[in-house]
Each structure stands twice: as C-alpha cells, then as structure tokens.
UniProtKB/TrEMBL annotation:
<dbReference type="Pfam" id="PF21478">
    <property type="entry name" value="GcvP2_C"/>
</dbReference>
<dbReference type="InterPro" id="IPR015422">
    <property type="entry name" value="PyrdxlP-dep_Trfase_small"/>
</dbReference>
<dbReference type="GO" id="GO:0016594">
    <property type="term" value="F:glycine binding"/>
</dbReference>
<dbReference type="InterPro" id="IPR015421">
    <property type="entry name" value="PyrdxlP-dep_Trfase_major"/>
</dbReference>
<comment type="function">
    <text>The glycine cleavage system catalyzes the degradation of glycine. The P protein binds the alpha-amino group of glycine through its pyridoxal phosphate cofactor; CO(2) is released and the remaining methylamine moiety is then transferred to the lipoamide cofactor of the H protein.</text>
</comment>
<dbReference type="Pfam" id="PF00266">
    <property type="entry name" value="Aminotran_5"/>
</dbReference>
<dbReference type="GO" id="GO:0005829">
    <property type="term" value="C:cytosol"/>
</dbReference>
<feature type="domain" description="Aminotransferase class V">
    <location>
        <begin position="185"/>
        <end position="302"/>
    </location>
</feature>
<keyword id="KW-0663">Pyridoxal phosphate</keyword>
<dbReference type="GO" id="GO:0004375">
    <property type="term" value="F:glycine dehydrogenase (decarboxylating) activity"/>
</dbReference>
<dbReference type="GO" id="GO:0019464">
    <property type="term" value="P:glycine decarboxylation via glycine cleavage system"/>
</dbReference>
<feature type="domain" description="Glycine dehydrogenase C-terminal">
    <location>
        <begin position="390"/>
        <end position="489"/>
    </location>
</feature>
<keyword id="KW-0560">Oxidoreductase</keyword>
<dbReference type="InterPro" id="IPR000192">
    <property type="entry name" value="Aminotrans_V_dom"/>
</dbReference>
<dbReference type="InterPro" id="IPR049316">
    <property type="entry name" value="GDC-P_C"/>
</dbReference>
<feature type="region of interest" description="Disordered">
    <location>
        <begin position="1"/>
        <end position="20"/>
    </location>
</feature>
<dbReference type="GO" id="GO:0030170">
    <property type="term" value="F:pyridoxal phosphate binding"/>
</dbReference>
Length: 531
C-alpha cells in the first residue's frame, strides 16, 4: 500500500529573497527579543505570593519605601527570554573563535565532569582543613605542575584572573625592593609589544611606566631597553610570546641585563599556551609570571569569570608571595597556611621566614578552575602538553601563510609566527578599514578577530586559531576572511553597512561609547500620540 496516495511530491522552489518583513520581526528561528521590561509589566507579578502573616520587619530603616520596579514574568516567559538572548551569543561551542591573544579554545567535557564532583563542587572555604584534604590536594598538585612546567621556585594560587596575577607579581617585586631598601625604584619598562594590561597593572601598583620601542621585525628593541636601565628601574614587564605573535628570542639576555642593573623581570604568561612543554620561563631568567588557566589549561573563558591567574615566582620573590598557600608535610597531610601560622610553619618546615605582602583574595582562589586545569594537565600528560604548543603554532602558521597573499602580514618576513597571526589593513582602498572586515565576518558566521591591537601595527587584525581547531574548520575561516578581504579591495560598498544578517545592524560605536543607555525608561505616551 502506498503511503502517499495524493501524488504530492516535494519540490525545490527557486531561490529568492523575502519582499516583506515578518509580523513578529523574527527571521525564521532567529527570534527577535524585546527588553525584559517590555515583556513584563511592573504592575504585576509572575508568581503568586501569599500575604505575610505579620507586617513586622527586621529591616528597620533599610526597608524599601518605593515600588521595586521590576517586570513581573512567569517562569516560562523568563526562561524563554534568557534562552532567546543566549541564542544571539557566539560561543566556542558554536564555532571557531579567532580572538588573537585570548586563546579561546575548546573546554573538554571531562574537565567539567570532574569539577562537578561533590567533593570539589560543594566545598566551602570555611570548612575545617581536615574535611577538605582532597580539595587541598588538587591545589597542591596543580601548584607543583605549574612550578615544574615553568621552571620556577614557587607559585601564588589565589589570584582570580590574569590581570590580578600581574598585580600579584608586581606587588611581590615591590615588597622585595622595599625589603632590600630600594623602594626608590619606581620605573617599570614596558615594551610596545606587551599586553595592554601590563602598563595599567604597573601604574595601579604605584609605579611609573615608560615605553620601550619595538624593532621593525616586531620584537623588543634590546639596545633601547638596556640603555634605559638604571638605579630607578624596578622591573621590566615583557610579554613572551609577544602580541605580534613572535617569540622574544633575546629574553635571556634582557633578563641578565635587568638583574645586573638591580631590577626584576615580569613575564606576561597569557601566551604560555604557545610554549607550554617546550620552554620554561624560569630558564630565561623570569622572576614572576602569571598563568591564565583559561588560556593554557582550558578552563572556561569570558563573561567576566570565573577566572584564575596563578603567579609563579623565582626563588628571589617566593618569600614575598601572598597568603594563603598549601603545603604537604612528610606525614602526607596538606595544610592551608594562613597568617596565624605562616611564620611558625615556614620556619619549622622550610627553614625560613615569609615576608608575604598580604593577601590577594578573601580565601584560597577559584576551586572549580583548579580542578578543571589539573584534569586537563593529567589527561594530556607531559607529551600531550608539548603537542598543545606545537599544534597551536602549526595552526597559526597555516592561517598566516594561507592569507599572506591577500592580507598584508607585516612580520611574515621574520619567519614563522608562534600562536597567532597578525595582519594589517594596508592595501585597502580609501574609506575601507579593519572594522569593515570584522563586521562582514559576522555575516559569515564568525566572531571577529581582535582588531586594532597591538598598536604597533596599523589597522591590526590578530588571529589566534588555537590548537583545538581542525584543518576543515581553519579552511572555512580562511575562505571567509579571504572573501571579505577581496571584497574590501574591490571596493564593495556593502561592507560599510555590514553586518546585514545579524539580529542588529551596525551601531554607531562612538555614540554608544560616549552616551550609553544603561537604564531602561518607560516611553512617555503623549495624548497627541495616543490619539
């Protein structure tokens, strides 16, 4: 018996474009979403709440005297609102995330499974130490791995993010200088090829920042740096590999010169993903370096947290590390060393006294990130971590060499890049810029790469593919970027108004930055408009 007795057959209609907007404003399953205040009413509640039995309040003069002003939505309305908003976000689980110097790579689900184990997910920072030996063991073993991988002497685990880790390192340097009576050293030298947070961190820690120029090949001008060293220089903050995607091959010579002049070397470790298992910064004379666990060891990244930026320290700076820290004694017990026992414990077990500058956080750091990072390290092993760096560098060079015939690659002549490829807007017709390429990439289904950074490259486009992308994924991205670049060179005016297929068209970014609308106000309906 035939199931289709009507004779109907599916057909493929001719391709065309819609001639009118939809009633809802939706574009197929890309749903238009109003503000939450426009969905719900401040006059209603989404749930039924029983009247209080007593009107007595323990809030006193802190009790609210005006309406709360929040829209009343039911649970389905609330869930749908935030789910629809989430569909408009780009994420690493959707596609390649080419942000340069940000290492947006896949987070293995094994890490998430381990972080959700009750003994780790439910731990409380105020629990008795004897009840959290497993959690402290995670922290202690991760600390040992970080020390081993970097060739350093100690590590502060409590910093909550990369910039927080930078601050930790600079405060250690400041404490060490004051300890030896050289608190007058107030100048920190920062190369142009360093991360943008470096000068901000140094200034926040009370130092004066001076720039060191880059050479024509995108590396630190070593001669200029050495010429500036003197009795007022506290430290050099250098990023390696730098933001031009290049390895600072003179770092050991720079470290030796800085140390000879009485200063310290801070290395920004945000790009450690490119050299993990291949290079130990401690062997290059580095005194302090933060490690972004979300970059090198695949813990979640973005959205403001949770982050984690442990800071590894040389033997000269380790005594000044912040508290708390974990320590395993000969009996196998793991201790969380706080202020109360720090001096006694250090003298008894390590033969020395701490000169800690204080604390970075209220508690011990970000437990969930520690668990994820250690899971990543143990699941890869030493050989796997080495391959991480090799594959990251291979993918970046594949992007660089595949596009250098279409986009200007200012440092391609310097040889292979490291973890990221950098391009400029040179060769674009007048009126076309990097932002036009970036916006057009949104129409191609990609989050744009990092734009206009580093500042040493005009109209910079910084692409970091990471090691987790397949050749097929890279080829698709390369094809999309090539297509957009060729359209720009051909003077395609439609790029000036891209994106065209996103939920929102291009905004006036200057106006949005200068006059942001951060508070929703109900539109005032005049009698004339009502009529």
């Amino acid at each position: 018996m035939a199931l289709n007795q009507s004779g109907w057959r599916p057909t493929s209609p001719e391709q065309g474009s819609a001639t009118s907007a939809t009633f809802t404003g939706n574009k197929a399953l890309m749903l238009e979403e109003a503000l939450i205040f426009e969905i719900g009413s401040t006059d209603t509640s989404g749930v039924e709440v029983a009247e209080p039995v007593s009107t007595a309040s323990r809030l006193g003069n802190l009790a609210r005297t005006a309406p709360i002003g929040l829209p009343g939505l039911s649970e389905p309305e609330t869930v749908r609102h935030y789910t629809r908003l989430s569909r408009q976000n780009y994420a690493i689980d959707l596609g390649l995330f080419p942000l340069g110097s940000c290492t947006m790579k896949h987070n293995p689900r094994l890490n998430e499974k381990m972080a959700r184990l009750p003994g780790f997910a439910d731990v409380h920072p105020l629990q008795p130490v004897d009840t959290v030996q497993g959690a402290l063991g995670i922290m202690n073993e991760l600390a040992m791995w970080l020390i081993e991988l970097t060739g350093m002497h100690g590590v502060a685990m409590s910093p909550k993010a990369g910039a927080h880790g930078e601050l930790c390192g600079m405060l250690c340097i400041k404490a060490a200088l004051e300890k030896r009576g050289e608190g007058h050293r107030k100048v920190v030298l920062v190369p142009e090829s360093a991360h943008g947070t470096n000068p901000a961190t140094a200034a926040f820690a009370g130092f004066t920042v001076e720039d060191i120029p880059a050479t024509a090949e995108g590396r630190v001008d070593t001669d200029a740096l050495k010429a500036r060293l003197g009795p007022d220089v506290a430290a050099v903050m250098i990023t390696n590999p730098n933001t031009c995607g290049l390895f600072e091959r003179d770092l050991k010579a720079i470290s030796d010169a800085v140390h000879a002049a009485g200063g310290y070397v801070y290395c920004d470790g945000a790009n450690f993903n490119a050299i993990v298992g291949r290079v130990r910064p401690g062997d290059l004379g580095v005194d302090a370096m933060h490690i972004n666990l979300h970059k090198t060891f695949s813990t979640p990244h973005g959205g403001g947290g949770p982050g984690s930026g442990p800071t590894v320290l040389s033997e000269a700076l380790s005594p000044f590390a912040p508290l708390p820290y974990t320590a395993r004694t000969k009996d196998g017990h793991i201790h969380l060393i706080e202020e109360e026992r720090a001096d006694e414990f250090s003298a008894e077990h390590f033969g020395g006294k701490l000169d800690s500058f204080g604390r970075m956080t209220a508690f011990h750091g970000q437990m969930g990130m520690f668990t994820r990072a250690l899971t990543y390290i143990l699941s890869h092993g030493a050989d796997g971590l080495r391959q991480v760096a090799e594959d990251a560098v291979l993918n970046a060079n594949y992007v660089l060499r595949s596009l250098e015939d279409t986009l200007d690659a200012p440092f391609a002549f310097s040889g292979p890049c490291m973890h990221e490829a950098i391009f400029s807007d040179e060769g674009f017709p007048e009126g076309f810029s990097t932002i036009d390429v970036a916006k057009a990439l949104i129409d191609e289904g990609f989050h744009p790469m990092t734009m206009y950074f580093p500042l040493v490259v005009h109209g910079a486009m910084l692409v970091e593919p990471t090691e987790t992308e397949s050749k097929a994924a890279l080829d698709q991205f390369i094809g999309a970027l090539r297509s957009v670049a060729e359209r720009a060179k051909a003077g395609d005016q439609s790029l000036k108004t891209a994106p065209h297929f996103a939920p929102r068209s291009r905004l006036d970014e200057t106006l949005a930055a200068r006059k942001p609308k951060l508070v929703w106000k109900e539109p005032v309906v005049t009698s004339e408009a009502a009529e």
